[in-house]
Amino acid sequence: MNILLLEDEPLVARSLILALETLEPDARILGPLDSVQQSLDWFDKNPEPDLILADIQLSDGVSFDIFRQRNIQCPLIFCTAYDAYAVRAFKLNSVDYLLKPIDPDELKRALEKFHRLHTASIPATENPLATLLEQLEQRTVPAYKRRFLANFHRTVVAVAAERVAFFVRDEVIWLVTTDGQRLITDYNSLDELDELLDPTEFFRASRKHTVRKIALEGYRTHYTGKLELVISNCPEEEITVSKEKAAQFRKWFEEE
Questions:
Q1: 119 and 168 assigned to the same domain
Q2: In what order do the strands lie in the sheet with 227-231?
């Protein structure tokens, strides 16, 4: 059996590979592929695997874009921090979902479910993924978080979204305010935050940083094609956007 892994966080990818090697010792693990474009190129050159384990947020976009552009029929297990409406949609369409950090027992049950479905008789015309994507596109606009809990001098405080300059992953997830305060949050990953933040206000700049538009003074273009962001009141913070995501960032930054 061939299992393809779509994941842009190296530590998460490594953890999944180790778990899969234990749970599916006869399987061949392909990847990890860390971007939408890399995945599209891969599917153009390779036959479909038997199973895909996919994060939703990749380095240059969301994995849904891959499945919209390629007619992929094999089963998927999504491994991500995603909200409840998606959980229901995935399960209704027999597509499983695991919340990061991945629990080995949950992964084991998801693989067992895959094997049950794989041996079942499913009509060739049925495309659960297409139904899922249609449901996601037709969903109501989510209510994004406007206040974030953080720890300050052993006190839990609520920080309004308007005071957030950026989030940074450095062992834990830090919230940095527009006046330069650094507060520890209880979030497990930036992936988890991605689903809580308004994408018109916040941008996932890298694996380490998520920035708020209003806190940006501007950016500089590096000779390699990547962008170096300048944050108000935090000029010493090194925040970059990769060459692959530069066009996406520019479009986001110029929109009101």
A1: no
A2: 216-221, 227-231, 239-241
